[in-house]
């Protein structure tokens, strides 16, 4: 994958972090600066670590799937893209004020499952791991900060549009992987 593709992937994966942080920003009243950094750090950490785990897992099975790896990358990105778009039209639960360690870990895991799968795709495309993981983690960190602070200033934000955009980016990356 090119650097541009990795940046697009990082943005698509960071959209979940942005939306979760936005919802938390809407409801937080105290210690906003501290809490925005803690939340963003958690999101960036999980988003940066999960591709490493996915990459390592893909390394274990790569000998079995190397002949059709580009189709596997296509399927993974395409399915993730469609999932993002479908979820954009599903009802969301109301945001709950939750900021203890257990809740932060839960939010970090929930938003980074897609990054785990993307890490496997990085392996199958022959991409390196360190730079993509750093870019994905950093993008998620900054998107979380932005989402949290947008949440403090806006009552409604078109999260559906963001999710659809993320889905389209992933589908385009899927198509590009087989061209």
Give the overall average pLDDT: 83
Question: Percent of residues in beta strands?
Answer: under 5%
Described by the principal axes of the CA atoms, the overall outline is globular
Classify the secondary structure makeup into a structural class: mainly alpha
The proportion of residues forming helix, as a percent range, comes to: over 70%
Instruction: Let me know the largest β-sheet.
Output: none
Architecture overview:
With 179 residues, the chain is mainly α. The chain has one domain (3-178). Helix content is 82%, strand content 0%. It has helices at 3-27, 32-65, 69-88, 101-124, 130-153, 159-178. Helix 3 (69-88) packs antiparallel against helix 4 (101-124). The two termini are 12 Å apart.
Summarize the topology:
Layout (H helix, E strand, L loop, with lengths): L2 H25 L4 H34 L3 H20 L12 H24 L5 H24 L5 H20 L1
Helix pairs in contact: 1-2, 1-4, 1-5, 1-6, 2-4, 2-5, 3-4, 3-6
The gist of it:
The chain is an all-alpha fold and 179 residues long.
